[in-house]
Amino acid sequence: MIAESLNMSVGSVFTIMTEDLKKKKLCACFVPHTLTTEQKEHRIASSEDLIAAADEDPNFLKTIVTGDESWCLEYDPETRRQSSEWTSPGKGRPMKVRASKSKTKTMLLVFFDSRGIIHHEFLRQGSTVTGIEETKFARVFQKYVAYSIE
Fold first, then answer.
1. Rounded-to-integer distance, Cα 41 and Cα 51, Å
2. How confident is the model at residue 41 (pLDDT cuts 50, 70, 90)?
3. Which Pfam families does this one have (predicted)?
């Protein structure tokens, strides 16, 4: 696009950009969303509260249980780089069938504490994590934490 607008070759534009101007072409880093000032302040306050609690009680970090959810595909095809092979000179490029990602997927919930995974569960097909299910898990893990630090 720059080369066309300046009526120059792509190679010349690339040389000027990289060697003369020391520019690099970088991909954008995706973030889920931007935070408001209020949200940023809340995160700072929460972090400070956690640090204070950890300073007061040496067992505090053992009481933290956190979790994550992830979609697990039934089949996840290799990337081109993962399936690359060394070939002899004169031999053609290896063939690879273009595969699409599986449409069958399952939600995996994993919960862990300072020692590692304490619970994992695959949700039924079509299920999603809702506030009600999260509340149910929160009650289960409150009991776990009370038991584990005694």
1. 15
2. very high
3. Transposase_1
| CA atoms of 104 and 22, how far apart (whole Å) | 46
> CB–CB of 113/148 below 8 Å?
yes
CA distances from 70 to 100, 107, 110, 120 (A): 19, 6, 8, 11
Whether 128 and 107 have beta carbons less than 8 Å apart is answered as: yes
Q: Are 105 and 76 in contact (CB under 8 A)?
A: no
Q: What is the pTM of this model?
A: 0.48
Asked if 3 contacts 17 with a C-beta cutoff of 8 angstroms, the reply is: no
Q: How far apart are CA 82 and CA 118, in angstroms?
A: 32
Q: Is it the case that residue 58 has pLDDT exceeding 80?
A: yes
